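The records we work with from here on pair a chain with its fold. These numbers are not coordinates but entries in a learned vocabulary of local backbone shapes. To see the layout at work, look at the sequence and tokens printed below.

. . .
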Amino acid sequence: MNATSIPSSVPRLPLFLSQALKKYGPLIVIVVLHIGLFYALRSGLVHQVTKSLPTEIFASFITEQAAPEPKPQPAEPKTVPVVKKQVTRPTPRPVVTEAPSPQAITETATPPQESKEPPAVAAPSAPAAPAAPATPKMISGVSYINAPRPVYPPLDARMGNEGTVTLRVLINEKGRAERVEVQKSSGSLRMDDAARDAVMRALFKPYLEDGRPAPAFAIVPINFTLNR
């Protein structure tokens, strides 16, 4: 039988077109892909796809916890049997006491011993106590090296108060007032204080006793009088 050729239903491309596809086909595919990618970037399709993806991914790792080791149980105390030892006490031996034999007792006379004690020394007598200082005498009059100058209290001067302060003064060997006491007040504490301060600042002539300065008491009056 002669083979008959069946015409193909697929049309064949011209020879020059098939050669062009073989030569420039890959380049055309690359250009088409670039155009599609540029279109996707321009239209925002890539941005929408990346926005729909999750931004954060959380991952947690689960670690297996080791089982706690069993605690060792304390060992039970061992019971040690106690062995009691029997102690044998020695039997007491009888004690034999011999009676002392009588012996002659002779006494020898001992000569008297001389006492070697030193003779008693008389204790020194205590020193005599110093004589108590004599009480200062009270003198009737005084002389001044620097007489007292009392300051009239301003309030008493404005109120017209006058008076005399009588002071009992202890004058020492240097002529200074050592102690001042108000024996009779003027009626105003301000004038009494002013009189006392003036006497403490004053200088007296020391009182002489047997030619030597000695302390003495004296009565000193201070007058407060307004000049009208």
In short: The helical segments are 15-43, 45-52, 154-159, 189-201.
